[in-house]
Design brief:
This protein has 197 residues and is of the alpha+beta class. The protein has helices at residues 14-23, 59-79, 87-97, 111-119, 129-136, and strands spanning 27-31, 39-43, 49-54, 145-146, 155-158, 161-168, 172-177, 183-187, 191-194. The strands form two sheets. It has a six-stranded antiparallel β-sheet, with no helix packed on it.
């Protein structure tokens, strides 16, 4: 199954991505947004490999996610079963991302953030708050705010549930669920909707 991934990534990245797709045999599927992940890689029961990427990502995040998943594929082919985000994957991911770190592909202000993230890449780009916030500026949902923009003590809606913003810890905000009164920790780059009575 072929997918027109080209409309989802920066134009100047297309030849490099096309080369990677031709070099490494896998099925690429662009899927509806999932709450828990931007993409994934798996070996199918028939022995083929499949990569999926969420369709709601902006082109810069889509490209990074796609290369992240291709790195899983290359790591699996090269090393077999190893830790999913271990040193082998990190090395492969860094190597695969290098050709994309240019101002013709990523905006100049994103390049230092990407370079910093790639020094020690994590399982999710959302773990790097600065990079995640920079990406979200290209796909910010109208009518929503980041949790850090909500005043202390204000009510907000997240996934159709009502919360009250509390104090900031080191990198997260304590927020009280208004029904069960439990306190949950929210990453500062989570997008929420201010509650209007």
């Amino acid at each position: 199954m072929k997918t027109n991934y080209q409309t989802y990534i920066p134009e100047k990245a297309i030849p490099i991505v096309q080369y990677l797709i031709e070099q490494h045999s896998f099925i690429l599927k662009i899927v509806n947004q999932r709450q828990t992940k931007h993409g994934d890689f798996r070996k199918l029961p028939n022995g083929n490999f499949q990569i999926t990427v969420n369709n709601n990502l902006n082109k810069y995040q889509f490209l990074l996610t796609l290369i992240h998943e291709i790195a899983h594929h290359v790591t699996y082919k090269k090393f077999g079963h190893v830790k999913p985000h271990g040193k082998e994957w990190k090395t492969v991911f860094q190597h695969l991302m290098l050709p994309f770190l240019q101002p013709e592909i990523y905006p100049k202000h994103l390049l230092p953030l990407l370079a910093n993230y790639l020094k020690k890449p994590k399982a999710s780009t959302d773990a790097d708050v600065n990079l995640s916030l920079a990406f979200k500026e290209y796909s910010k949902v109208f009518g929503k705010n980041y949790i850090f923009e909500i005043p202390l003590g204000s009510l907000f809606v997240f996934k159709n549930k009502l919360y009250k913003r509390g104090n900031k810890r080191r990198t997260r905000f304590e927020c009280t669920h208004m029904l069960n009164k439990k306190v949950y920790l929210f990453n500062q780059n989570v997008e929420v909707k201010i509650y209007e009575k």
